[in-house]
């Protein structure tokens, strides 16, 4: 039976979709059978993030409204045999979809998969509650920026009213170069503020926003391993900037 895990944040643009997509890809590459579900019905972009936008026949709302079966709405990813994308490409943003309706579709899929990763919309209104209500576990994504951490804190408080099995944290867009010169909070400092266990750290890298979906950054592989094993070994974003050559990289990065 699949673990149903929502990726949420409160603040927009911190990397929920990126983390959900690459995490799903890395889980799939490790042999786990994964559904990546786009629960951001208004500003859905999981299809584009995973590069399957031209392969979509049916989507989540088609499955909810009975135009297809849950399994027919899945797009098998051409590069990851175990990854299935449940898009919401066709969904009209004004359409009302209840949490229960999504839950029914995911419950139909759960017995045949190991993981269902749910991409949550930004904000804490209806779309947020709808996405959270379908999950058993949550990953809260934040960046080291104070505004993102504040929103993550609010979300973590809200999540306490859902009976989730676990809530963990991913620090995205970590800047190891700035942590070393104390111009950015470190993941450990963010954990201390949010009092939530750290599941992973993803650095801010061109290879993530400009990279190919088929070559995930090693930090996502570590995140997938942490999720599977429960042993939380996280990526060290400062390592690349330590030592003599690291110092040069730090100077070059600051110049960008
Ligand atoms: N670790 C990273 N390094 C560099 N760029 C990143 C990283 N993570 C995400 N991005 C970029 O940041 C932007 C926002 O990411 P993404 O769409 O995943 O955020 P989101 O939280 O899902 O946004 P929304 O709230 O609008 O749904 C994208 O351009 C993405 O490529
Ligand atoms: Mg998103």
Radius of gyration: 18 Å
The description of the largest β-sheet is:
8 strands, mixed
List all distinct small molecules, including ions and cofactors, that are bound in this structure.
Answer: adenosine-5'-triphosphate, magnesium ion
What is the tally of beta strands? Answer: 8
Written description of the protein model:
The protein is of the alpha/beta class and 256 residues long. The protein has a single domain, classed as P-loop containing nucleotide triphosphate hydrolases (Rossmann fold, 3-Layer(aba) Sandwich), CATH 3.40.50. The chain is built from eleven helices and eight strands. An eight-stranded mixed β-sheet has the order 3-4-2-5-1-6-7-8, sandwiched between helices. Helix 6 links the parallel strand 6 and strand 7. It starts with a strand and ends with a helix. The mean pLDDT is 94. The structure holds adenosine-5'-triphosphate (ATP) and magnesium ion. Adenosine-5'-triphosphate (ATP) binds next to helix 1, strand 7 and helix 9.
Task: Give the secondary structure arrangement, pairings included.
Elements (H helix, E strand, L loop, with lengths): L2 E6 L7 H14 L4 E5 L7 H4 L10 H5 L9 E3 L6 E4 L12 H11 L5 E5 L6 H8 L3 E6 L3 H14 L6 E9 L1 H5 L6 H8 L3 E6 L2 H4 L8 H12 L13 H13 L1
Parallel strand pairs: 1-5, 1-6, 2-4, 2-5, 6-7, 7-8
Antiparallel strand pairs: 3-4
Helix pairs in contact: 1-10, 4-5
The structure holds adenosine-5'-triphosphate and magnesium ion.
Magnesium ion binds next to helix 1.
